[in-house]
Backbone:
């Protein structure tokens, strides 16, 4: 595959300007989405304005960070190549089918985490799906995209709207209704289960202690715990304690959510946005395996796809890594095993010529 | 805490794989051995070579990582890829000048030697350097090494035009200041030597 | 008994060997729930210090023990994965009895022990005391080794007790006694580092005693020269200053040839020889004919190599000679060792710092177990069973009439031959897997099929246990307290990390229970292994290997104590023969002339290739333990045949091909490993595997006339390319004897 243009060409804008642009663009898009989705704020719930505001700020941060991330030559190359391979017209259909399969395995079931450890997988699966569930409800609600109202004719019947379009109606007291109103509690419980398993793992795994950091590994768990527990207390307050402390609790809940939204672009949670790149890499590897392979200059064995090695050479060039050897050779054409062997042979050679010199003298 | 460094002396290696077996016992990469033990070419020689991560000052693996997943601790130890970030692209695996990172297909993650961070971060020796029966892998003070070994420790390398400085040292003859890797040494056996230095049959003939 | 009770694959299915592996993702460990037990590796005579991680009476891992002086935390792969023999799915947790047609079924302890005692009484009543034999092992702690000797002599009163050290140390032991007067390495390992020349003969130290590598390299760092003598280039040899690829069995050529040159060029210590030795003149005369050319013909190497060896070794200021099985496993094993010792004596470099001699012990307690009475000709304290005074002393210690102690019995191989001939009808064995480890395995199998009754004590159902009528579930090293004596003669403590699993018992309790049933309970009334050790101290008092001054506490305080240690105040004796004082009554060392003679089976037109055998680093001896550990089987899954490209080309064999290696006694089919690091007239196969993968199907049942060690290191074979085998045994897992 020969790229039609060099994705690693020197960019015109500075990184910060470029990222600022994409941050602002993301935030503007969100605002535009809120305005149109809530039919000019008609469906917007002013009580939730702080959440929506934090989401817009977070959107700016995510856009900014993502754009910065894509400025890295290796990332940019994969981004470009990933789309190029995925969108290749003759392959698009089979690519879509493959995409469905890997989305199911890596994102829905997260099987690769299960293979790392069952405990880690249990924790992550509950955390991930608790959060996704909660986000799927709260963002549309706070953006005014979804709205509920009681039917005029019957107080027992609720009607749901999305973007102002009626989605249907349901009876209060039905299991469906219970589930709908308690969906955030379900999500909170899932997250708490995940937090519990994650903390248990960190408390019992000597290996995890030694490499963990507070800001990257403990803070996210604390935040998720805080959101979930304050959210659950809101329900408890409403249903079991006649609304006692409701105001204070809802403010506390809002603070935890807003802090998390603002943390989103910078901390561990950013992997939610980065991670889909794994899908692109998957296509890249598939295409690479189908194409010609690179053979090691030393042992003659195939060790990577030709495309990968060629791309890496341009990435390395963009990064200023100078692997060119004498006689037009390139160190990138040596496989990792031969590099390791060569290190020992080089040391051996140094000692042998040292000994020869001593003998010569 | 006395400052100790990691030293490799390939020439001492006897290929026993104690390092490989001990590595899998380390708590930060449980059950998975991160060290490489290469048999150079069993047909010709018994030479073997252990390879741990050299922990570069400016690690090529981290530079070529699209996911910004490879981090160095303040004490200079380059860690395995961050699990949430690594997108399993293997850029690091094929770029590392020392051939160190391992792509673990079943976990879809790059893992590598982290100098047994659970041990070295609290002043203990890494597993491989503790058990190594030959001293090919040694974790001790610079002073001790200079006092007891005939060579000197060097941590400066050149791969083509790329200069690399590492936290880990290699033992080389005293006149060496930098280990330079170039085409000449990429031959299976450096041409300066007799064709088959370890062929027992030739030995028996040559000394006749 | 008879043949196996049921088809082999069924036994393997039920009792293994199966693999204990680390779960995917590894162990989850919390050090706060664990404690560390400082003890020693159970494999090999170096007895490296190691800490076992114990959680809730389970061994869950290891931690290096950096404060133990000998190995300072260093370990080989076997030591590292040793903890995986604990919590093993194959572990026997009940006595078993043979059930014809079915295999083995659990039986109650009382019933099992009653049956053993009844059979001993029946067989001894019918055929005489000596018709019931005892086979014991050198991986037992001193206490158990002592107990086995006492059990045979007091409870069974059979002369026929021997041990698997017969396959290991006896050549060097015999030679050492004859030449120096004491059977022990002369120096602590710390002297290796201070030597200017190290000569290692028949010692693949990087695989069989890997920690010693560090001692070699530390000497080399100081500028020491290293000479390695071995038919195969070993990893140490690769970096040696002189590597001599001797033809197996040709070692005397090198040693005598070196001595010839040393005498000629005056590189001998005349003063030392005159003051501290006898018999030099005779030896000097005997090596007169060993000119470099004559010596080289015997050794199968160019004369220049022998000259060079003499030039390196002769004029050195300090030197250290080590040897191991490579020169000992010969029908002239004792003579090989004596020839090496002559070099040490002639140079006068022994008994001082950096000057000395050592034999590298193979088994865990190879040194200790042979001193405590497990050998057919010895009583505790290295005492001679045919010496009336020695017998009298031990009879007093044991409280038995001197005449009740049997005389010298059969050594291991003749003992198995006596079983084959029907002279020995009953057997009890512990810590010994002769079906895998004895030469001429087809003969061994046939012998075991003839036993009327066989009781076996083991923690796994070994290849030999399969022939037993009763298997008694015993204990691992880490399940009991005890001591071993390492290759330096240093007595050290093994600590109990865990209890034996429910249903298994400590070995010493099993032995004492049988003795009780035989009516000798009063002599076996021990409350623990320390009490046995204290009796051993008294029994060895005044003997050559005097442990009287060694207590468990003292071992603890001093990081081990080297014997002889005659009094509680005595610090022990790390270095023997200081000031030229040797172990013989005359205080001198005795030169003994040796002349080369051919091995029992030399190559001929029908079987033109030399076969030599040995070990690999990942496995220990017959593999009962290490073939059950996943990581070690991963490292070396199956045996192979090392063959030089020159020979391989001649035979049309390529690397990785299946080859059939045949001798007059049997055959194996294994993969070829084509390497330039072996003599072109020799092939090598490691011996840790059973059945059709057992190189001992090929080895020759020829013994050294003095030490009775078998000639494992040379026999004649032919090699041919073979098809992939698909029979029932080949289809077993590799650890059980299959091939892939």
Residues:
């Amino acid at each position: 595959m020969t790229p039609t243009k060099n994705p690693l060409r020197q960019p015109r804008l500075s990184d910060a300007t470029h990222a600022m642009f994409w941050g602002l663009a993301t935030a503007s898009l969100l605002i535009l989405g809120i305005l149109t989705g809530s039919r000019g704020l008609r469906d917007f719930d002013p009580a939730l304005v702080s959440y929506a505001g934090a989401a817009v700020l977070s959107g700016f941060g995510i856009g900014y960070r993502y754009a910065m991330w894509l400025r890295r030559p290796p990332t940019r190359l994969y981004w470009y190549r990933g789309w190029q391979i995925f969108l290749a017209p003759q392959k698009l259909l089979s690519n879509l089918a493959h995409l469905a399969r890997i989305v199911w395995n890596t994102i829905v079931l997260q099987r690769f985490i299960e293979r790392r450890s069952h405990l880690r997988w249990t924790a992550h699966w509950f955390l991930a799906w608790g959060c996704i569930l909660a986000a799927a409800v709260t963002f549309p609600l706070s953006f005014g995209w979804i709205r509920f109202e009681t039917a005029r004719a019957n107080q027992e019947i609720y009607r749901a709207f999305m973007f102002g379009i009626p989605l249907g109606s349901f009876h209060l007291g039905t299991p469906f209704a219970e589930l709908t109103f308690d969906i955030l509690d379900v999500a909170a419980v899932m997250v708490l289960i995940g937090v519990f398993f994650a903390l248990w793992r960190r408390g019992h795994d000597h290996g995890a202690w030694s490499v963990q950091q507070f800001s990257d590994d403990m803070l996210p768990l604390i935040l998720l715990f805080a959101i979930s527990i304050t959210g659950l207390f809101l329900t408890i307050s409403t249903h079991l304690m006649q609304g006692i402390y409701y105001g204070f609790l809802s403010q506390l809940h809002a603070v935890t959510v807003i802090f998390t939204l603002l943390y989103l672009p910078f901390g561990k949670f950013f992997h939610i946005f980065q991670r889909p790149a794994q899908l692109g890499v998957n296509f890249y590897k598939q295409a690479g395996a189908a194409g010609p392979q690179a053979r090691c200059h030393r042992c003659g064995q195939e060790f990577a796809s030709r495309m990968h090695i060629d791309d890496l050479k341009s990435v390395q060039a963009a990064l200023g890594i100078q692997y060119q050897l004498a006689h037009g050779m390139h160190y990138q054409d040596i496989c990792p095993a031969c590099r390791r062997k060569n290190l020992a042979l080089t040391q051996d050679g140094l000692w042998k010529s040292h000994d020869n010199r001593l003998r010569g003298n | 805490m006395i400052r100790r460094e990691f030293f490799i002396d390939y020439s001492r290696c006897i290929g026993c794989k104690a390092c490989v077996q001990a590595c899998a016992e380390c708590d930060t990469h449980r059950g998975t051995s991160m060290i490489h033990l290469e048999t150079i070419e069993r047909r010709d020689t018994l030479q073997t070579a252990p390879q741990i991560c050299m922990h570069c000052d400016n690690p090529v693996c981290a530079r070529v990582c699209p996911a910004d997943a490879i981090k160095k601790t303040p004490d200079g130890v380059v860690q395995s890829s961050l699990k949430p970030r690594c997108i399993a692209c293997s850029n690091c695996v094929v770029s590392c000048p020392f051939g160190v990172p391992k792509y673990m297909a079943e976990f879809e993650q790059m893992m590598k030697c982290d100098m047994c961070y659970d041990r070295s971060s609290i002043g203990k020796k890494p597993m491989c350097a503790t058990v190594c029966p030959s001293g090919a892998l040694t974790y001790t003070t610079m002073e001790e090494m200079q006092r007891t070994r005939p060579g000197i420790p060097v941590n400066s390398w050149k791969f083509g035009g790329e200069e690399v400085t590492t936290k880990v040292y290699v033992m080389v003859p005293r006149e060496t200041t930098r280990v330079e890797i170039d085409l000449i040494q990429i031959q299976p056996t450096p041409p300066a030597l007799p064709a088959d230095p370890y062929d027992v049959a030739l030995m028996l003939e040559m000394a006749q | 008994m008879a043949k196996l009770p049921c088809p082999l694959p069924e036994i393997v299915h039920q009792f293994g060997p199966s693999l204990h592996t680390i779960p995917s993702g590894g162990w989850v460990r919390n050090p706060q729930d664990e404690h560390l037990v400082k003890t020693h590796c159970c494999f090999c005579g170096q007895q490296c210090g190691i800490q076992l991680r114990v959680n809730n009476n389970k061994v869950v891992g290891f931690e290096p023990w950096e404060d133990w002086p000998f190995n300072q935390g260093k370990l080989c792969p076997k030591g590292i994965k040793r903890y995986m023999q604990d919590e093993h799915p194959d572990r026997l947790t009940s006595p078993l009895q043979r059930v014809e047609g079915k295999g083995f079924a659990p039986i109650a302890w009382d019933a099992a022990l009653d049956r053993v005692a009844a059979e001993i009484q029946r067989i001894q009543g019918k055929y005489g005391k000596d018709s019931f034999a005892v086979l014991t092992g050198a991986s037992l702690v001193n206490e158990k080794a002592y107990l086995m000797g006492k059990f045979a002599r007091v409870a069974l009163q059979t002369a026929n007790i021997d041990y698997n050290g017969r396959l290991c140390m006896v050549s060097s032991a015999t030679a050492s006694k004859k030449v120096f007067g004491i059977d022990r390495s002369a120096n602590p390992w710390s002297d290796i580092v201070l030597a200017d020349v190290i000569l290692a003969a028949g010692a693949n130290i990087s695989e069989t005693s890997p920690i010693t590598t560090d001692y070699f390299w530390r000497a080399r760092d100081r500028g020491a020269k290293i000479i390695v003598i071995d038919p195969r280039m070993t990893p140490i040899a690769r970096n040696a200053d002189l590597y001599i690829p001797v033809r197996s069995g040709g070692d005397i050529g090198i040693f005598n040839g070196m001595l010839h040159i040393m005498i000629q060029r005056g590189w001998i210590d005349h003063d030392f020889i005159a003051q501290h030795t006898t018999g030099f003149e005779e030896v000097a005369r005997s090596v007169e004919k060993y000119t470099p050319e004559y010596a080289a013909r015997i050794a199968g190497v160019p004369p220049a190599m022998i000259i060079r060896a003499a030039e390196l070794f002769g004029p050195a200021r300090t030197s250290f000679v080590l040897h191991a099985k490579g020169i000992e496993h010969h029908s002239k094993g004792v003579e090989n060792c004596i020839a090496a010792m002559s070099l040490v004596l002639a140079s006068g470099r022994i008994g001082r710092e950096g000057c000395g001699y050592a034999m590298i012990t193979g088994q865990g307690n190879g040194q200790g177990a042979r001193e405590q009475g497990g050998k057919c000709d010895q009583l505790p304290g290295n005492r001679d069973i045919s010496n009336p005074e020695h017998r009298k002393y031990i009879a007093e210690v044991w409280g038995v009439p001197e005449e009740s102690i049997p005389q010298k019995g059969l050594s291991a191989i003749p003992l198995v031959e006596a079983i084959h001939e029907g002279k020995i009808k009953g057997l009890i064995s512990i810590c010994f897997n002769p079906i895998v480890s004895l030469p001429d395995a087809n003969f061994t199998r046939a012998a075991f099929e003839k036993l009327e009754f066989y009781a076996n004590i083991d923690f796994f159902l070994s290849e030999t246990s399969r022939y037993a009528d009763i298997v008694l579930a015993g204990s691992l090293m880490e399940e009991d307290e005890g001591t071993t004596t390492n290759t330096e003669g240093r007595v050290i403590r093994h600590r109990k990390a865990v209890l034996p699993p429910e249903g298994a018992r400590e070995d010493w309790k099993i032995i004492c229970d049988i003795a009780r049933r035989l009516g000798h309970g009063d002599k076996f009334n021990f409350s623990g292994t320390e009490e046995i050790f204290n009796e051993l101290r008294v029994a060895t008092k005044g003997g050559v290997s005097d442990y009287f001054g060694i207590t468990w506490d003292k071992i603890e305080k001093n990081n081990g104590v080297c014997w002889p240690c005659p009094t509680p105040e005595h610090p022990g004796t790390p270095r023997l023969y200081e000031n030229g004082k040797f172990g013989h009554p005359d205080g001198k060392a005795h030169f003994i002339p040796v002349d080369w003679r051919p091995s029992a089976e030399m190559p001929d037109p029908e079987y033109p290739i030399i076969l030599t055998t040995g070990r690999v680093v990942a496995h220990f001896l017959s593999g009962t333990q290490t073939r059950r550990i996943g990581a070690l089987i991963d490292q070396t899954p199956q045996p192979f045949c090392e063959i030089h490209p020159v020979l391989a080309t001649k035979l049309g064999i390529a690397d990785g091909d299946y080859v059939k290696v045949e001798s007059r006694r049997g055959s194996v089919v294994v993969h070829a490993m084509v390497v330039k690091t072996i003599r072109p007239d020799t092939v090598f196969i490691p011996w840790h595997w059973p059945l059709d993968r057992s190189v001992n199907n090929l080895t020759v049942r020829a013994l050294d006339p003095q030490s009775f060690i078998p000639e494992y290191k040379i026999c004649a074979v032919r090699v041919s390319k073979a098809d992939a085998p698909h029979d029932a045994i080949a289809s077993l897992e590799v650890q059980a004897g299959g091939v892939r």
User: Anything to note?
Assistant: Strands of chain B lie at 5-8, 36-39, 48-51, 102-104, 109-111, 137-140, 152-159, 162-172, 179-181. Chain B is about 20% helix and 20% strand.
